[in-house]
Amino acid sequence: MKTPLTVAVAQLNCVVGDLSGNARRILDAVARAKAAGADVVLTPELALCGYPPEDLLLRPAFLDACAIELASLAAQVEGITVLVGYPSAQGGSRYNAAAVIQDGRVVANYFKHRLPNYEVFDEERYFEPGTEACVFELKGVKIGVNICADVWEPGAAEVARNAGAELLLVLNASPFHMDKQRLRYEVLRERIADTGLPVAYCNLVGGQDELVFDGGSFALDQDGTLAWQGSVFAEELSMLRFADGAWQDRASAPLRPVEADVYDALVLGVRDYLGKNGFPGALIGLSGGVDSALTLAIAVDALGADKVRAVMMPSPYTAQMSLDDSREMVRRIGVRYDEIAIEPAMNTFAAMLAPQFAGLPEDTTEENLQSRIRGMLLMALSNKTGAIVLTTGNKSEMATGYATLYGDMAGGFAVIKDIYKTFVYRLCAWRNAQPGGAVIPDNILTRPPSAELKPDQCDQDSLPAYEVLDAIIAAYMEEDLAPREIVARGYPEAEVYRTVAMLRRNEYKRRQSPVGIRVTQRGFGKDWRYPITSRYRDA
Fold first, then answer.
1. What strands, in cross-sheet order, belong to the sheet with 141-147?
2. Which residue(s) pair with 284 in the sheet?
3. DSSP string of 333-389, one letter each residue
4. I want to staple 96 with a disulfide (CB 3.0 to 4.6 A). Which of 112, 239, 287, 334 is the partner?
5. How many angstroms separate the CA atoms of 275 and 252, rounded?
6. CA distance 507 to 505
7. Please, which pLDDT band fits residue 250 given cuts at 50, 70 and 90?
8. Using omega within 30 degrees of 0 as the cis cutoff, is the peptide bond preceding 355 cis?
9. 56 pLDDT higher than 90
10. How many CB atoms lie within 10 A of CB 255?
């Protein structure tokens, strides 16, 4: 057997715009890889500037700063080859690039061929496509370079193979959604079938606004067999050995329930959103319901109990069991807990508005006012302490407008914005089954959900059963099915058309909602771009 080529896969958590910090993170990985005997270090896509940098790429000063930082980084590399992702400005064009660094300088560049312009991606806004291969040799192995979307379509990998590549190293910033890892294996095996090239796939890890990158880097042999599997939702540096056309490692894909992946994504998203933006802690309005309970559990797991504060704001309609359940949960989880009754504020607003509302019956206006009083209290605490308010509305509520604008939608980060109500319960059950015991009281999970804004209120007074509602929303929003096609699947016609109508008319609310973590293939964020003003009605 030939002397193995050792590839260090540096699965890093980079911060958008933190050029010097990202460079230090890369150089630390390089130093550790060199000490471990690595020949080449593979980093994620655009690791130097973080992904996605969005309109920072339109600023010439940003591109200049990236070039300066890359040169400084390269000057510190000796005795090892490093692949670094960065944005390159060349001749008036911008490229999503990978630099091959050896002996203190950049010896070659690769420009990404395939620019994704779908889902959350809009790289055609920023970059021009490359066309040339980048192949370099180490220890007798000819190594080709691809970047992320290059391997999701035919073409770029073949260009590398035709240029003599025997091994493909891929820099990636592939965001998480449910079932994403299976898709990655699938598309990489397609590229391997086309080219016969074994692959090392290095993915970014960490939260960036609504996106969470899950890592999960891996290596496949030329027959598509999984040779190595990296960790998910964590930074790591891994050493892989390659000799005689094959990886010398063997691995199996870990079997993780989808609930574990989604929960870990939410935890990482919260930790990085607060940590990277410098918030000292989080505030959560507890209701005694399942959504706020799940949000509280995630926040504590992400930040620690000492950085989370729960506030219960009971009204005259708040059931005693809601108070009891909230108190029991905070006892189990160990966060600061306060109760602020809102009845005095309700009475004050009622008196102020009485002349304006004279002769008009009570309706949802009075209900929503309660939610808005709570929002004002939470935002006042946020202003005073610097802690960010985590909103608790789920995807089902966001779709139908059941979350109150300027009320329970008030806040800075929407943790479960992309989690259907039915999946909220699945995540709670999964969390309660973890070592350490249940943190969410059973009564929260078994009682009928209610906003408790009027006597004996239940969610299902205003909405279809959540099992039906969530399926209709998913079919319309994520599959782009017309209402008649959803009805053909067996869902009640009246409920389908009512749900779709609610979804359409509440776009103006969603545009004003806080950014929230994306975990499905289509969330209410970058990949949902519907006009607020529209008269189109599909049948």
1. 135-138, 141-147, 167-172, 199-203, 218-220, 226-229
2. 310
3. HT-EEEE---HHHHHHHHHHHHHHHTT----HHHHHHHHHHHHHHHHHHHHHH-PEE
4. 112
5. 33
6. 6
7. confident
8. no
9. yes
10. 6
Query: 268 Cβ partners below 8 Å, 6+ apart?
Result: 205, 206, 207, 212, 214, 233, 302
Centroid of chain to Cα 14 = 14
State CA 158 to chain mean position distance: 31
Residues 390, 284: Cα–Cα separation, whole Å? 6
**Cα(211)–Cα(392) distance, rounded to whole angstroms?**
18
Catalytic residues, by residue number, are 45, 112, 148
Whole-model pTM over 0.85: yes
Please tell me the total number of residues recorded for the chain in this structure. Answer: 539
The enclosing H or E element of 213 equals strand 211-214
Q: Is domain 260-455 in CATH 3.30.2350.10, yes or no?
A: no
CA–CA distance, 132 with 145 (Å, rounded to integer): 10
Structural tokens at position 522:
């289509």
Q: What is the largest CA-CA distance in the chain?
A: 91
Contact 408, 295 (CB under 8 A): no
Q: What is the DSSP pairing of strand 218-220 with strand 226-229?
A: antiparallel
DSSP state of 436: T
Q: pLDDT of 175-214, one tens digit each?
A: 999 999 999 999 999 999 999 999 999 999 999 999 999 9
Q: Residue written as tokens 């979804």?
A: 503
Burial 323-356 (b: 16+ CB within 10 A, else e): eebbbbbbeebebebeebebeebbeebeeeeeee
- pLDDT band at residue 254 using 50, 70 and 90 as cut-offs: confident
Instruction: Look at residue 174 and give its three-state secondary structure.
Output: coil
Q: How far apart are CA 246 and CA 199, in angstroms?
A: 10
Element (H, E) at 495: helix 493-505
Domain 8-244 superfamily per CATH = Carbon-nitrogen hydrolase (3.60.110.10)
Q: Three-state DSSP class for 111? A: strand
DSSP 7-71: EEEEE----TT-HHHHHHHHHHHHHHHHHTT-SEEE--TTTTT-S--GGGGG-HHHHHHHHHHHH
